[in-house]
TrEMBL record:
Protein name: GOLD domain-containing protein
Occurrences of domain GOLD (ranges): 33-150, 233-352
Subcellular location: Membrane
Topology in membrane: Single-pass type I membrane protein
Homology family: Belongs to the EMP24/GP25L family.
Keyword tags: Membrane, Signal, Transmembrane, Transmembrane helix
GO cellular component: membrane
Transmembrane segments: 6-26, 182-202, 380-402
Listed InterPro entries: Emp24-like, GOLD_dom
Pfam families noted in UniProt: EMP24_GP25L
Keyword Metal-binding belongs to the record: no
Length: 403
C-alpha cells in the first residue's frame, strides 16, 4: 500500500511539470481569422484535434454547423496541414525546427444573424502524444511498470526541454553581446568621426589648439581541484539560484611526501554571497566543511588564502566538493527515518529529481526573460547615446563654421 501511495505522489508531481495537453477554446466571428501558436523545439511529435461548435442553440438544434478553413504552418512558413470546408479534423507532424508553430482558423460559411462559432483545439506535444494504452498492450506491461515507463519518458522530456532552454539562453546571451558590441562600435566610430571633424575645423580656423588624448579600455554536484599559489589567494565561484541548500567539503593536500611527514600547510577560507554577505569564515585549517541555504540568485564565491608555506618544491592543492540542491540530501538518513528502501527510495529520489529540474527550468526561463529585457534596454540606451553624441557633434560643427 505504501508503495502505491508513493507512486501516486510521484505521478502527481511529475504531471505538474509536464507540458499538459490542454484544450483551447476560440470564439470565431464571421469572415474573420484567428490564430494560436505554441513555442516548440525541434524533433518533437505534435498531435492536434479541432472541432467546430455553434454558439447559437437555435442553429445548433437545426444541425447547422459552420465550416472553417484550417492552416498549420512552421516557424519558417512551411505548410504542415491545410483543410477547407471542415467542421472537424486532426493533424500530426514532427517538428523540424524550433520556434512558434501557428494554427489559423477562418470562417468560410456565413452564419445567419452574424452569430459566432466556437472552436475547440487540443494540442498534444511530446510525451503527451504517446499512446500509452497501445504501448502497454504491445510491451505487455501494466501497473507500476507502466507508471515507471511514463515517468521515464517524462524525465527524458523535461531533461531535453532543460537542455533546449539552456541552449536558448546561451544563444540569447551571445546575440546580446554581439549586438551590444556592434552598437558600441558604431557609437565609438560616430563619436570619433565627429571629434576628428571638429579638430580639423578648429585647426583650419586657428581658433583653438588641438589637445585630444583618448584612451578607452574594454575590460574586457562537482569536485574541484585547486592549485594554490605560494602567496596570495585562489577563488572559485558557483552560480546558484535562491532557496537552495549547499554543502561543501574541502581538504588541503601536499604533493609527494615532504621532508616533514606530518606537516600540512594551513589555510584561511572565506565564503561570500552575490551581495558580498559573509556566509562562512575559517582561519588556520587544513580541512573542513560548511553549509548554507542561498537567499539570492547569483555567483557564490569561496576564497582560500595560504597562511603557511609548504616545503620547497612541494605543490599545495585543495580538493573542493560542492553539493548543491538534491545532491546535498542524505538519502541514507531519509530512508532510515521514513523506513523505506529499494523501489520506494528510488521513486522518492526520482520525485526530488523531477522537482529540482522543474525549479531549474523555471529559473532558466526567468533568466532568459531578464536577459532579453536587459539586452533591449541596453541597446536602446546605447542607440540613444549614439544619436545624441552624433547630434551634439553636428551642432558643434555647425556652430563653429557659422562663427
Amino acid at each position: 500500500m505504501k508503495l502505491m501511495e508513493v507512486l501516486k505522489v510521484v505521478v502527481v508531481v511529475a504531471m505538474v511539470t509536464m507540458m499538459a495537453a490542454e484544450a483551447i477554446w476560440l470564439e470565431l466571428p464571421n469572415s474573420e481569422t484567428k490564430c494560436v501558436y505554441e513555442d516548440i523545439r525541434n524533433n518533437v511529435v505534435v498531435l492536434g484535434e479541432y472541432i467546430v461548435i455553434h454558439a447559437d442553440e437555435e442553429h445548433a438544434q437545426a444541425n447547422f454547423i459552420p465550416t472553417i478553413s484550417v492552416r498549420v504552418t512552421s516557424p519558417f512558413g512551411n505548410s504542415l496541414h491545410h483543410e477547407e470546408n471542415a467542421t472537424y479534423g486532426r493533424f500530426a507532424f514532427t517538428t523540424s525546427e524550433h520556434g512558434n508553430y501557428l494554427a489559423c482558423f477562418r470562417m468560410i460559411s456565413h452564419v445567419p444573424g452574424n452569430k459566432n462559432a466556437a472552436i475547440s483545439l487540443q494540442w498534444k506535444i511530446g510525451i503527451d502524444a504517446s499512446d500509452w494504452d497501445s504501448i502497454a498492450r504491445k510491451e505487455k506491461i501494466e501497473g507500476v511498470e507502466l507508471e515507471l515507463m511514463k515517468l521515464k519518458g517524462l524525465g527524458q522530456a523535461v531533461h531535453e526541454n532543460l537542455l533546449y532552454l539552456k541552449k536558448r539562453e546561451e544563444e540569447m546571451r551571445g546575440l546580446s553581446e554581439r549586438t551590444n558590441g556592434a552598437v558600441a562600435w558604431f557609437s565609438m566610430m560616430s563619436l570619433s568621426i565627429c571629434i576628428m571633424a571638429a579638430a580639423v575645423q578648429i585647426w583650419r580656423m586657428k581658433v583653438l589648439k588641438l589637445l585630444v588624448v583618448a584612451t578607452m579600455a574594454m575590460t574586457a554536484a562537482e569536485a574541484i581541484w585547486l592549485e594554490m599559489p605560494s602567496s596570495g589567494d585562489k577563488c572559485v565561484y558557483e552560480e546558484i539560484r535562491n532557496n537552495v541548500v549547499v554543502l561543501v567539503n574541502y581538504v588541503v593536500i601536499v604533493d609527494n611526501e615532504p621532508d616533514q611527514p606530518n606537516f600540512i600547510p594551513d589555510i584561511s577560507l572565506k565564503v561570500i554571497s552575490p551581495f558580498a554577505n559573509k556566509l562562512h569564515h575559517e582561519e588556520n585549517v587544513t580541512h573542513g566543511q560548511f553549509g548554507f541555504t542561498t537567499t539570492e540568485p547569483g555567483n557564490y564565491m569561496a576564497c582560500f588564502f595560504m597562511n603557511s608555506q609548504a616545503p620547497d618544491g612541494k605543490g599545495v592543492h585543495i580538493g573542493l566538493d560542492w553539493k548543491i540542491g538534491i545532491a546535498s540530501k542524505d538519502w541514507d538518513s531519509i530512508a532510515r527515518k521514513e523506513k523505506i528502501k529499494d523501489i520506494e527510495l528510488v521513486l522518492m529520489k526520482f520525485e526530488a529529481w523531477v522537482q529540482a529540474i522543474n525549479e531549474k527550468l523555471i529559473y532558466l526561463e526567468k533568466r532568459e526573460e531578464e536577459m532579453s529585457e536587459v539586452s533591449e534596454r541596453t541597446n536602446a540606451a546605447v542607440a540613444l547615446f549614439s544619436g545624441m553624441s552624433l547630434s551634439i557633434c553636428i551642432l558643434a560643427a555647425t556652430a563653429q563654421i557659422w562663427y
